[in-house]
Amino acid sequence: MWRPLRGALGSARRCLGVKVCRRSALLVVLLWLVSWIFLNGLVFVHRNMFSDFCTDDKSKEILQRVCDEYHQGVLTGDLCDDLCVSGQVEYKRCLYYENGKKVMAASWRGLPVVLKSKLENFSSYEALSLLDYPDGGAGGGEDELSPLDVVFYATLEIKNSLGLETGNNLTLPRLWGQRLKESERMYSRAELASLWALLQQEEYTFLRVLQDLTNHVAKILGSCGHFYAVEYLAAGHAWDQHIFSLDELTLSPSPSTFSVKEMVPRVALSFLEMVEHFENDFSHRLHLCDIKPENFAIRKDLTVVAIDVDMAFFEPKMREILEQNCTNDSDCNFFDCISKCDKTKNRCGSKRRNSNLQVICEKIFRPWFSPTLLGAKAGLPLQVELQRAVQECAEMEDSEHRQDIRQQLYALLRELVQEDTGHPRGGQEHKRRRVHTALNF
């Protein structure tokens, strides 16, 4: 009687042991799988977040590599000697790394500047194919690149980068200072390679093309290899209720001549002038597709300056970007530049529906002139009228009334300046807008 019972118990224990073993094995497998996912997740986060972590040590290493290549004759530029030999370029701090882009604060002969490059290493840029030939560029053969050749190829690269058509007029702005004007001299491989690396950076090309034509973009002051120096300006901040740190301008070594009270309407007027300038004064309208306080700065004369133009496009390239496949209107939104979906063709319209002015009213002016920020002044008749005009500007859908709204904002802001300065004519008048025709592509 007991034998069958003991046999049954033994079988039960064996079965239970097998199940326990299976569960243990399953738990081990699950634990290993979770650990593997966790560790790979950490690696992914590290590569995508911390690999671009901005540090002073890494920034100094990057600049040291630039100087090493300068001494080896690989790259050159008008900034190199001061950076790598005389020490007149003094590194200050790392500003940010983003998707390979390196941005650092420095001082050049006592002047604060920002050093920028789209990629970390000079070798990461595509080489000028003409330099692959033994006699190309700096050799002594018959196939040397003449200064006219340099101008021609550089102009084609600029037009291609900015999305502009190539016409008969191949006007080239001052890309290499006075050196491109020295028609007698041939260019070294280092000079051509450095110029070509700079031309592959859309922001550099954009700023170089426009800096002699407008005061509303940051000025490029020099370059060394693939790094270029831009003037350092007080940028805006989304978290700052005043957007721009206006107090910094009044406390700086060479303070602004305007009072803090009149600064806000004057800066707003400069925004309006910039918008009109970008829309009307070039051969193609210029679209800003990433409008936020951080992408603008102000000089001491309160001129608004576009300092991050990675998302700025002339009309031909804007149309090319917008004209994509779609199923609804939301598919046609390219950051702050939007168009409408033609559902019969499932194609986005090539024409932008909103405007630079509309987005600036929505993202800059509306919070800037809000009752919360204005406090007790919000109930004043002029402020109420300005708030209504800003709201109408941010919500406008009819482009025919755009000019009317702009003129209304101009009038109200000028009246605010007059009120704040206590002068019937509003103190200094804004400079008359100049029409530039040099950018005639």
From TrEMBL:
One of the record's GO cellular component terms: endoplasmic reticulum membrane
Domain FAM69 N-terminal: 12-178
Record lineage: Eukaryota, Metazoa, Chordata, Craniata, Vertebrata
Chain intervals for the UniProt region annotation (Disordered): 420-441
Recorded topology in the membrane: Single-pass type II membrane protein
Highest rank taxon of the organism: Eukaryota
Record's protein name: Divergent protein kinase domain 1C
SMART domains: PIP49_N
Primary location group: endoplasmic reticulum
